[in-house]
Amino acid sequence: MIDTRKFYIDGQWVAPKGGEVFDVVNPATLQPVATISLASVEDVDAAVAAARRAFATYSLTPLSERLTLLERLQAIYRRRYREMAETITLELGAPATMSYEQQADVGTGHLQAFMDALREHRPVEVLPNGETVLREPIGVCGLITPWNWPVNQIALKVIPALATGCTCILKPSEFTPLSALLYAEMIDEAGFPAGVFNLVNGNGAVAGAALSKHPDVDMMSFTGSTRAGIAVSRDAAETVKRVSLELGGKSPNLIFEDADIEAAVRRGVQHCFNNSGQSCNAPTRMLVQRSVYERAIIAAEAAGREAQVGDPVQQGPHIGPVVNAQQWERIQTLIRAGIDEGARLLVGGPGKPEGFASGHFVRPTVFADVRPDMRVFRDEIFGPVLSITPFDTEEDAIALANDTPYGLAAYVQSGDEARIGRVIPRLRAGMIHVNGAGRRYGSPFGGYKQSGNGREGGKFGLEDFLEVKSIHRG
User: Fold this and answer.
1) Which of 44, 70, 147, 343 is within CB 3.0–4.6 Å of 176 for a Cys-Cys bond?
2) Of 86, 91, 174, 246, which residue is the catalytic one?
């Protein structure tokens, strides 16, 4: 049992002012693996005060100095890479291979992309009218990150804050705090000035709200549920601070009759199940042209049956558990809703996979004949659950794809470049993936509608943390 009750504030590991604690549980074994403290309002105040003091000098540091600090952090992260992967497996239940190849890799990949963007960044711009514009750090930033891709979201928030000259307070999810504590150790070793980066663990109702409402916090960057993002926005509105949100998704995967059907379907099933379905941009709504619908159903059922659930500490392509009991119960409720509302169950269903009586394991599940009025079509499930819906025409596909309050990602599978060119501009989503193409580090991550605002990653991620100041000379 790891005792990690201290917070990182003003360059020191300090004891909390409050006394509430929380056990971090391994979702595969249901055994507590660590104890953390939950921050009080007083703890948040101390972290914000440290960040405010540090901003006065850190905001004026030259770009070259900040780059040097980030380069040190990159070297330290690479040295402790395997430790980070193992930590994520312990706290999240992500399988060892997936943790090493994906979950931990984002820490070094995003950092490199931000450094590349920072080298190209020009803080001074002369406009065509001859006047000057400065881009300056926005100030003290509150950063709230989720449990599903813990280091991914830490890197997408902490790095651009530090790169642009901001100071910050990180509040990671209390369900996956160990990777954040390890990241804090790396930042400390890299030599960032005291107060530039601060970490407090806590829950949203106390620590998250205290950050969002705090008058000395200039910006909130939040990733999580749409419901919680609305709460952050309301709290932040009291002090009219900037709010950047990366929220939920219910991403459509459009498979047209001229695509490689079997390959597209298999790819879609595997992507939906990756990270046990706990990805906001997962292609969870597979929309298939009716002329090839039965072929797609056969392929989806085969791919779904091949999906394996396994022990996270073992190497391999299997999926692990979901993060906690609350999440497991929500997934079960929605799987049962799919059955009750008349969807055709191809693979999986409610309950735990055979051989996994303990742990928060979910049966990989595929539904066919899903209608737009069903909950499995409309609700973000955040588990390994795929719904498949037929469409007739290109117009029908676009209408179904956009029939959601979310707009994070969309996926298009077609062999017709003209069709792809027609469809992409009409999809109300922030990221479009064509024929299995993935994202590259440095590309903007974010969505439309209730999937949030702002963009994370590369130069677009830097801009979120910058203010614009215009200079008018006589």
Assistant:
1) 147
2) 246
Handedness of CA 69, 70, 71, 72 (dihedral sign): positive
| Sequence letter at residue 182 | L
Q: Report d(CA 112, CA 97) in Å as an integer.
A: 22
Residue closest to 93 by CA, chosen among 314, 251, 271, 369: 314
Q: What is the Cα–Cα distance from 101 to 438, expressed in whole angstroms?
A: 15
| pLDDT at residue 18, rounded to an integer | 84
Across the chain, mean pLDDT equals 97
Domain at 2-247+451-471, CATH homologous superfamily = Aldehyde Dehydrogenase; Chain A, domain 1 (3.40.605.10)
Q: How far apart are CA 192 and CA 173, in angstroms?
A: 23
Extents of the domains making up the chain: 2-247+451-471, 252-441
Closest to 9 measured CA to CA, from 36, 45, 37: 45
Cα separation, 124 vs 229, in Å, equals 33
DSSP letters along 95-160, please? Answer: -HHHIIIIITHHHHHHHHHHHHHHHH--SEEE-TTS-EEEEEE--EEEEE--SSSHHHHHHHHHHH
Same-fold call for 2-247+451-471 versus 252-441: no
pLDDT per residue as tens digits for the range 155-209? 999 999 999 999 999 999 999 999 999 999 999 999 999 999 999 999 999 999 9
Place of tokens 């000379």: 473
The whole model's pTM is what? 0.97
Name the residue with tokens 């706990």.
278
Give mean pLDDT, residues 301-315. 98
Q: What is the pLDDT of residue 7?
A: 98
Domain with residues 252-441, CATH architecture = 3-Layer(aba) Sandwich (3.40)
Is 246 part of the annotated catalytic residue set? yes
Predicted confidence band at 94 (pLDDT cuts at 50, 70, 90)?
very high
The confidence score (pLDDT) of residue 235 equals 98
Distances (CA, A) of 162 to 69, 134, 153, 189, 224: 9, 18, 14, 15, 22
Provide the angle, in degrees to the nearest 10, between the axes of the packed helices 81-92 and 178-190.
160
Residue 443 clears pLDDT 90, i.e. is over it:
yes
Fill in the DSSP letter of residue 281: T
